[in-house]
């Protein structure tokens, strides 16, 4: 049975995971096998559990114990479940919990680029995307629109950042992802060696239109999305096989990176 632990103040050491540690401390970069992340909301937690992630503890409003969190609590055999009133949890986390349930989970072992790309036809490469909201939205779009895997440059936001997980609606647990440690140089060469053409999404007078048939007909394609604001560096554009743009109307020059990615994924993953 789960270990139900009522909390009446914030002194319990088990609560440190939810408020006392920064995102970097939760990741535990010195010992990645001991890293932790926080999943928020019953729906997201269920997706993580179904994907095989290991829960370490739960924090829930008392009213949800036999309500919207009942099935989650039942699945957390032997896991401490901290239960408190809404106001106390808000003072702990620093904000009102809109869905009243948090779960601390063990971070998975990192996967290799070769592993996540095995059998993939379409992958997305995120280059320096640092905003957690955009990262979550990119994962959600990729999962929904048929991307097989995501690859991230070392400067990208952690996909298991609490806000990224929440915005993704748990799709970070459903779609394979890995870091490309040497991007763009060795990273582009690595993709090319696996048979991928690289399509860099950028504004350029010589760019291909997104609906160019050469893109859709490519057996293996890596869609490269750049950082917010500055987009992709010239070095990256020079190394990629194609530079691709989305045709715009009314003089609009660009879209938010997550919105642009969704359009590109829909066109190129059909």
Summarize the structure in words.
With 270 residues, the protein is of the alpha/beta class. It is built from 12 helices and 12 strands. It has helices at 16-19, 23-27, 42-50, 70-75, 86-93, 113-117, 132-145, 162-167, 185-193, 213-216, 234-239, 257-268; strands at residues 3-6, 36-40, 55-61, 80-84, 101-106, 122-126, 149-152, 177-179, 197-201, 208-209, 221-225, 242-245. Strands 8-7-6-11-9-12-10 form a 7-stranded parallel sheet. Strands 1-4-3-5-2 form a 5-stranded mixed sheet. Helix 8 (162-167) links the parallel strand 7 (149-152) and strand 8 (177-179). The radius of gyration is 21 Å and the shape is elongated. The mean pLDDT is 89.
Secondary structure elements and pairings:
Blueprint: E1 3-6, H1 16-19, H2 23-27, E2 36-40, H3 42-50, E3 55-61, H4 70-75, E4 80-84, H5 86-93, E5 101-106, H6 113-117, E6 122-126, H7 132-145, E7 149-152, H8 162-167, E8 177-179, H9 185-193, E9 197-201, E10 208-209, H10 213-216, E11 221-225, H11 234-239, E12 242-245, H12 257-268
Helix pairs in contact: 7-12
Distance from first to last alpha carbon? 46 Å
Strand order of the largest sheet: 8-7-6-11-9-12-10
Q: Biggest sheet, in brief?
A: 7 strands, parallel
Poorly predicted tracts of residues: none
Q: Please, what is the average pLDDT?
A: 89
Number of distinct beta strands: 12
Q: How would you sum up the global shape?
A: elongated
SSE sequence, one letter per element: EHHEHEHEHEHEHEHEHEEHEHEH
* Share of helix, binned: 25-40%
Gyration radius (Cα, Å) is 21 Å
Share of residues in strands: 15-25%
- Determine the structural class based on helices, strands and strand pairing: alpha/beta
How many helices in DSSP terms? 12
